[in-house]
Amino acid sequence: MIDVAGEYIREDVTETQAGVDLALDIQILDVNTCEPVPNVYMEIWHCNSTGVYSGVVASGNGNGDASNINATFLRGVQQTDSDGAAQFRTLFPGHYTGRTTHIHVMVHTNATAFPNGTLIDTTHVGHVGQVFFDQDLIGSVEATSAYSVNTQQLTTNAQDSIASEEAATSDPFVQYVLLGDSVEDGLLGWLSFGIDTTLSKNVSAAATLYQDGGVSNPNSNAGGGGGPGGAAPNGSFPSSAGGPASTAAP
């Protein structure tokens, strides 16, 4: 998995995107003690209703707009509380060719926030993974207006090798309730998963958004969706608006 750098520390990642509201609560537990893991940074990112990731320009990323390298929607970081939980206000993710509907998650176990409200950490990543959704729920969401215009091919959970691999050793599917009479009224979703807090890995940023704009890392091998189960496109995480951009190298 290729990391990205310069993420906003924020709860609301929706910006002006259209879609089904999703209030997402993720809890991190220590696999060795079964206790919550507080004061670590949970990072999420996912594509929009038409299958486009912000912060990246790559084949298979939907819109082909060069200015997308500077976009920041549906990406964010939150610090876990005393219960090991982090909350996000986001949207139900769309899909793109070759992958089922999913949200990327990454846990930073020893990161320091920058004064401008961003987080860049490529040396203390304790977990990299993805979370998924019930196929019936995906079908209901995909029938709504913001998602029905998505022209990319839909891959089901059963066709996605990454979903199958993760489901073989854990339960990566988000539990949920409707917040109204239909999915258009929004969803509350929650999930707990375990990490080994004694482990960490280095990851390579695909890009970094500096104060003057996004800069891709030519050595990151970031790219488009590919075939079934293929790697997702990855994008840059932005520096905070109004603050100095991080000086970390991409």
TrEMBL record:
Pfam families registered for this protein in UniProt: Dioxygenase_C
Keyword Disulfide bond: no
SUPFAM superfamilies found in the cross-reference section: Aromatic compound dioxygenase
Oxidoreductase listed as a keyword: yes
InterPro entries named among the record's database cross-references: Intradiol_dOase_C (IPR000627), Intradiol_dOase_core (IPR015889)
Compositionally biased tracts (Low complexity): 233-250
Domain Intradiol ring-cleavage dioxygenases: 11-136
Chain positions covered by the region annotation Disordered: 212-250
Molecular function (Gene Ontology), one example: oxidoreductase activity, acting on single donors with incorporation of molecular oxygen, incorporation of two atoms of oxygen
Biased segments, Gly residues type: 222-232
Keyword field: Dioxygenase, Oxidoreductase
Domain of life: Eukaryota
PANTHER family: INTRADIOL RING-CLEAVAGE DIOXYGENASES DOMAIN-CONTAINING PROTEIN-RELATED, PTHR34315
Protein name: Aromatic compound dioxygenase
